[in-house]
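Late entry, written up from scratch paper. The run itself happened at the end of the previous shift, but nothing got recorded in the book at the time, so transcribing now.
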Amino acid sequence: MRQGPLHFPARIPFVEEMGLELWHAGDGTSELRVDLDEAHLNSWEVAHGGVLMTLLDVAMAQAARTMHRDGEKFGPSVATIEMKTTFMHPAEGPLKARGKLLHRTPSLAFCEASVFDGENRMCAHGTGTFKYLRALGQRRSHERSHEASAAAQATSTTAATAPEAAGAAPAADTPPTGSRP
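Output as recorded:
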């Protein structure tokens, strides 16, 4: 295993904000680590359940992405469609999550992951089902660009055909746009 964290194959701002590090991803497995700080804690000063669930979710997703049938290092994006979590022990100290792909179909991945504390006690375990997606970020960017272009075109068309939409008063003998005589 490589010394030091790897780069995530996709930028995930929430994961960056949490400080999660990817230490291994390959052959249907993954390992993530996080050093807990005050922002990760609940009122009992142990890791918040949301931190543990995020570790489980991301570990499973990374494991799913490593087994792409086209032989790519990382397959398409995945989206969590179902996840079950069992909390077993309060989590303290640096945490490690290990994810594993159990089975996959052309469109779904079935995974499991566990979170371990600094003393290597299992604190949480999860199973999840993930949907393989193609370039979701690129598609959304394209859709936003298309929507902006359509909105700009609609604005210029409206301004040319309905002066009152641009703030001008309608002519006295012209009914307002959208009304019937």
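DSSP finds three helices and six strands in the chain.
(Scratch paper discarded after transcription.)
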